[in-house]
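hi! just following up on the protien thing from before. the input was this:
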Amino acid sequence: MNIQLISYVGYMTFFIMLFNISIYGLFLFIRKSKNPLYRKKTAKVARVWMKIHRPAAWLAFFLVFIHGVMALTHFNLSSFSLLTGIISFFFLLLLMITGWIRNQKATGKRKRFHRYASFIFIIIVIIHIVI
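and the predicted 3d structure came back as:
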């Protein structure tokens, strides 16, 4: 297995996840903006973005799974990068579960839990990439 292909799939997944988490900034802008015209235009973008959010999350999950299987077959189990990758995969599972629970009934507590889970997940993924 080519290590460049493993890295390419990982980075592609990372950019999809950054796209998905950047929706938080869009919603923050809508909440904090004082200009109603900007809020209205940004809310229209957010509606379109939310339709893309879930399929992009499933695509990222699928790519992470492929990336993980390729890494498991290529690297030995004592690699620290592999360990952080496994930890980040479990946090991705947690993030997907919280997203599913949030989708069932969107209460404030569930939204916050999904948001915090995404922040923790991104931090762990950045640690995985840096190391």
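Residues 2 and 74 are 8 Å apart (CA to CA).
Residues 36-74 form the longest helix (39 residues).
cheers
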